[in-house]
Automatic annotation (TrEMBL):
Domain Peptidase C51 stretches: 67-140
Protein name from the UniProt record: CHAP domain-containing protein
Classification via Pfam families: CHAP
Source organism per UniProt: Pedobacter frigoris
Entry superkingdom: Bacteria
InterPro entries according to UniProt: CHAP_dom
């Protein structure tokens, strides 16, 4: 009897939250994160932005392989979650003013500014935030966090190293 009462209240809470719009966005952000997590460990075939999976990310944005693919991968993850946008392989275009947010949160896209480029030059999806640290899921990176890496990794970056955050679900 106690277990069924607990289940009843859990269903009621889910229904109430859903009807007030609380759970939909949380579920949507988590869906994007789950898709991105499944890609951890994908690596390039020869280390030159190539390989079947990398080509799939790039093809999603109508880009021929080989090419840098961090933004294409972000776009692909959102596409797999059922979103038509973003759909770009150009990392600066992931940060239009209408999508910018001040605070990082799971499921939001982050961008790293490179002074040598004079623009955002790398991006990823936030998995979690702990104090001043952003745990991100990134493609075209490596163990040291390069923007010219060879695969999909989970990285930890300090908030001060991140230039912009964009919310593509809100």
């Amino acid at each position: 009897m106690g277990a069924s009462k607990g289940f009843f209240w859990a269903v009621c809470i889910i229904c109430i939250c859903g009807s007030r719009g609380y759970s939909r966005s949380v579920v949507d952000y988590e869906k994007v994160i789950r898709i991105a997590r499944k890609e951890i460990g994908v690596v390039e075939r020869t280390g030159k932005n190539d390989g079947a999976r990398i080509a799939e990310y790039l093809n999603y944005c109508n880009i021929k392989s080989p090419a840098p693919y961090c933004a294409a991968w972000v776009s692909w993850c959102f596409g797999q979650a059922g979103y038509s946008q973003p759909k770009t392989a150009w990392s600066p275009s992931l940060f239009p003013t209408s999508r910018l947010v001040k605070e990082p949160k799971p499921g939001v896209v982050f961008g790293i500014y490179y002074s040598g480029l004079g623009r955002i030059g790398h991006c990823g999806i936030i998995e979690s935030v702990r104090n001043d640290w952003v745990y991100g899921l990134e493609a075209n990176t490596n163990v040291v966090g390069s923007r010219e890496g060879q695969g999909v990794y989970r990285k930890i970056r300090h908030k001060r190293t991140i230039a912009k955050y964009a919310d593509w679900i809100k």
